[in-house]
Amino acid sequence: MPGTAESDGNTPLSPEELDELVPSLATKEELNEFERENILQAEQWAMSTRNINSLDPVTDDYIRKLHGKMFDQTWKWAGMYRRTEKNIGVPVHRIREDLGILLGDVRFWIENKTYAIDEIATRFHHRLVQIHLFPNGNGRHARLIADVLVVKLGGQRFTWGRKDLIKPSDTRQTYLEALRAADRDDFTRLLEFVRS
Q: How many other CB atoms sit within 10 Å of the CB of residue 88?
């Protein structure tokens, strides 16, 4: 069954979460490909000029809607916050509170120009990954929403190492190490990575 094995940087799914798989897939590779197609459609929606201009990515509704569009053809729980504890992320009972704090922080950073545009979007991405809102897809979701925010604020989309960050690779390892450095409040490597 896809999604059962834990690998570096991946969150294992509970048996109940695995039962919520929409299509019938046999391998992790099939799952990754199916999710990729789902995400490409969501990306087109999210990055459309109309949606960039009219929707606010720094809201609970948008965050859930984007995740839903990214995974609605793959998982029945797409767009719903996780209800199980994971190997990463805040305890389940803190998800909404920590997200509310993050959204307030991001609004403050934007209004007060606390950081440059790239750093605001990068910090938003990092904290979303840290909170780990959903059963799966948190990194992909946080990368896409960071892209949406940076474009909305007048910047250019991030390049994220110009590689697939799903499969194990040196680029994925660099990304994970940059996230871990950001956990220690050192954003230098992550800021470099988003533009590499």
A: 15
Distance, CA of 140 to CA of 172 (rounded, Å): 12
Cα 29–Cα 170–Cα 164 angle in degrees, nearest 5:
40
SS3 31: helix
Q: Which numeric CATH code is attached to 15-158? A: 1.10.3290.10
Rounded Cα–Cα distance for residues 68 and 52 (Å): 17
**pLDDT for 23-60, tens place per residue?**
888 788 888 888 999 999 999 999 999 999 999 999 99
| Phi/psi of residue 23, nearest 5 degrees | -85, 165
- DSSP annotation of 72: T
Rg (CA), the chain: 16
